[in-house]
Each structure stands twice: as C-alpha cells, then as structure tokens.
Design brief:
Layout lengths: L1 E5 L3 H12 L3 E7 L16 E6 L5 H10 L3 E5 L7 H4 L5 E6 L11 H7 L4 E8 L9 E8 L6 H24 L30 H11 L5 E5 L2 E14 L6 E4 L2 E5 L3 E10 L3 E4 H8 L11
Parallel strand pairs: 1-2, 1-4, 2-3, 4-5
Antiparallel strand pairs: 5-6, 6-7, 8-9, 9-12, 10-11, 11-12, 12-13
Length: about 300
C-alpha cells in the first residue's frame, strides 16, 4: 500500500513509524516553513521518501504526488486545507486524522475545546478530506476516556500513545476495503483560540473554571488579574464550600481561595509573569493578599 502523508507533529511521526512497520510505502510531504519539524524527515527506512515543498498549491507538489500514485493521501495533524486537486490524486481515498469528536468538535484545536467543555471522554476521528474543514464522511472512530485531571498537554500525549493501535486498526480496514462511510451532520466550526478564550470569568461555576485551567495547561495558561499584576493560573481545585461575590478572595488556613458563581476555587499553582511561579499559599504571603481583595478578568 502506498500513502502520501501530510503533517508535522510528533503524532505524524508516530503514525508514519507504524505504517512503515506495516510495510507501507510512504511519500512524506513536509512543508519547508516548518523547519523546526525537520527532525520528522529523519526516517531510516527505504520505504519512505521525504519531499519538502514551499506551498501546498505548488504545481511541483501535485506532480510529485501524481508520480507517486498513492492509494491513500493522509493528513495527520496538518494545519492547512488540502486542495481538491490534490485530494483527487488519491487512488482510493484522501483522509484526515482528527484528534477529537466529529461533528461536535470541528476545530484546529479540538484538544482545548474538549477539555474546556468538561468532557469525560473523547474520540480520534478519521474522516474523508473534502473542500470543507473536518466535514467529510467518517471512516473510523476510536473512543477513549479522559482523566479528570486531563490537560491539553496530556491529551496530546495520550493521542500520540494511542496512535500505533489506531493506525493498525485503520490499516486493517484499508487493506480489506472496509473503511466506514458515515455522513456527518452540519455543525459550526469552533474558533481559533484567542487570548480572550483564556481569560477566567469568576462569574462561572467552579467546575467550569477548573476545566478552563486544565484546557490551557501547558500551552496558553488561564489568565486573570490582581491589581496591576497579570497572573497565569496553572492548577486549581474546586471545593464544595459555597461562595458569593465572584472574584472575591478568601484566605483560609493561609490557603488562597477565589469565589466563583457557586463554590470557592482553591488556587494551587500560580505564575506571575514577572515574579515567577508560586503555590497559592506562598503567593498569598508574597504579595500580602487579604480577605476581600479581588481577582479580575483582564
């Protein structure tokens, strides 16, 4: 089986490694501007050729893929839309590795939104490529549980560790011409993450605030403000202590709590962009926080 593969993440490399073990022939298509990912091209296997290109609309790229004559074109964690003229070069199908449920989590970063929304499980979805983002028919799904302390970083690691099994199961379906073909219903495309998506709104429930903090760790970090200090909240723990006056700070046993719309939220780890990383308790002592002070959204 011959596959032309787009991508530039560690998950891309894990998937290609597995495909090579299955004796597939690979044309790995690596975008030149992603120079920091060129380590991905260091495969020591005669069944793979790496082709570095400048632009996905380059005619030379289409010619290279056409000459390779792939059975499948595979987009694996690739942040660019594959144009229709390239999709049509696949002998059997052009497919995409999407690390989230579809159609509900159509997004360039489903990791963030799945955790942000407090989901307890997720799905790796393989679907056909079309001229619309994440809208092609679904050919394969792998459901997996999420840890209650899941972060965006651990989610990415979890998907990477699952990838060999996913590729092996997908390969079995491909080699036997048994890929699924489940149509998707329409859904909105979730937006790119903006700074405002990381701002903590203390008027939300404690559980929602905790989900946001985990969804931001370790790439973005959830943000709030104390007086003129910009703070990144790294770890919190919701409590069952009722609260009022959202954003209001409560000091109990030298621990730092903040009122949400329903319960107090204990601040475990916090980072000041200037002063450094502290436990909630040490930060309270360091900046001399008092009962009745406030954390705000930026």
């Amino acid at each position: 089986m011959k596959l032309a593969v787009f991508g530039y993440s560690i998950i891309t490399k894990t998937c290609i490694d597995t495909l090579l073990k299955l004796n597939c022939r690979i044309l790995f298509l690596l975008l030149e501007e992603k120079k920091e990912y060129k380590f991905l091209s260091s495969f020591k296997n005669s069944n793979i050729e790496t082709y570095i290109y400048k632009n996905i609309n380059d005619r030379s790229l289409s010619v290279k893929i056409s000459d390779f004559n792939p059975d499948y074109i595979f987009s694996i964690i690739f942040g660019y839309k594959v144009p229709e003229h390239i999709i049509n070069l696949a002998g059997k199908a052009a497919i995409n590795f999407h690390p989230g449920p579809l159609p509900g989590y159509r997004s360039a970063n489903p990791y963030f939104w799945v955790i942000r929304n407090g989901e307890r499980s997720s799905v790796v979805t393989i679907h056909k490529l079309t001229n619309e983002w994440d809208m092609g028919n679904i050919v394969y799904k792998k459901v997996f549980a999420l840890n209650k302390y899941e972060t965006i970083g651990s989610y990415n690691t979890r998907v990477n560790l699952m990838s060999p099994v996913i590729i092996e199961e997908l390969y079995s379906l491909m080699i036997n011409d048994k890929l699924g073909d489940e149509p998707q219903s329409k859904s909105r495309y979730l937006p790119q993450i903006k700074p405002s998506n990381t701002y903590i709104n203390w008027n939300q429930p404690a559980s929602s605030i905790e989900s946001l903090v985990r969804a931001c760790n370790p790439i973005h970090f959830a943000v709030c403000q104390f007086k003129r200090m910009l703070l990144e909240i790294i770890e919190v723990e919701p409590t069952n202590i009722p609260s009022s006056n959202p954003g209001c700070i409560v000091i109990k046993d030298n621990n730092l709590f903040v009122s949400s719309s329903d319960f107090l939220v204990m601040i475990n780890i916090i980072r000041s962009t200037r002063e450094g990383v502290f436990s909630g308790k040490r930060f309270t002592e360091f900046v001399k926080i008092k009962n009745g002070d406030f954390f705000y959204s930026p």
